[in-house]
Design goal:
Bound molecules: adenosine-5'-triphosphate, magnesium ion
Strand order of the largest sheet: 1-2-3-5-4
Distance between the termini: 14 Å
Largest sheet: 5 strands, antiparallel
Helix content: 25-40%
CATH topology: Heat Shock Protein 90
CATH architecture: 2-Layer Sandwich
Number of strands: 5
Number of domains: 1
Structural class: alpha+beta
Number of helices: 4
Radius of gyration: 15 Å
């Protein structure tokens, strides 16, 4: 295993994995958040760490529902990997419209949905509650957001 803090410390081996898929209904946002938190509980995280994970998952799943599958219903794919060194990796994927310019989308206050009073802060929230956020997207194909969180003292 790579030492903590090294460049590749987020590539640690998975010890346990959960995959779920849910239709992009807003009622499933809470379900996704709760399921991820329940699975992570086996690592005995601090309450604040669980709150951070729930918040970041909530933002990513909401984005699948309101942007990726806007005006349609598709499937949201969530995979959680619990890795060596207390690292949690969460992949949240949709096969929706995709993002034209990921760099721009990740900027604080950038939104394509101001008419619905979105604030453009979802990616910023994910970044502040996680150790690393990766976004891969292709127009017309979909988006994958990967959240990494290292649990303290594990
Ligand atoms: N899964 C996705 N599919 C397509 N576009 C997305 C997706 N996630 C984000 N985006 C695009 O990136 C922009 C920024 O997302 P972000 O979550 O930061 O803000 P927001 O969703 O617009 O507002 P907020 O999250 O504060 O309610 C969105 O307005 C949207 O254009
Ligand atoms: Mg958002």
């Amino acid at each position: 295993m790579k030492p903590k803090g090294s460049k590749n410390s987020f590539t640690a081996q998975a010890l346990n994995v959960m995959s779920i898929k849910l239709p992009s209904l807003s009622v499933n946002e809470g379900m996704a958040r709760a399921a991820v938190a329940a699975f992570c509980a086996q690592l005995d995280p601090r309450p604040v760490e669980i709150a951070d994970i729930k918040c970041a998952v909530s933002e990513a799943v909401t984005n699948c529902i309101v942007h990726g599958y806007k005006n349609t219903v598709g499937i949201i794919y969530i995979t959680v990997k619990l890795c060596e060194g207390g690292i949690v990796r969460i992949d949240i994927r949709d096969k929706g419209c995709g993002i034209d310019d990921v760099k721009q989308a990740r900027m604080p206050l950038y939104t394509t949905d101001a008419e619905n009073e979105r604030s453009g802060m979802g990616f910023t929230v994910m970044e502040s509650f996680c150790d690393k956020v990766r976004v891969y997207s292709k127009c017309g194909k979909g988006t994958t957001v990967t959240l990494f969180k290292r649990l303290q003292g594990k």
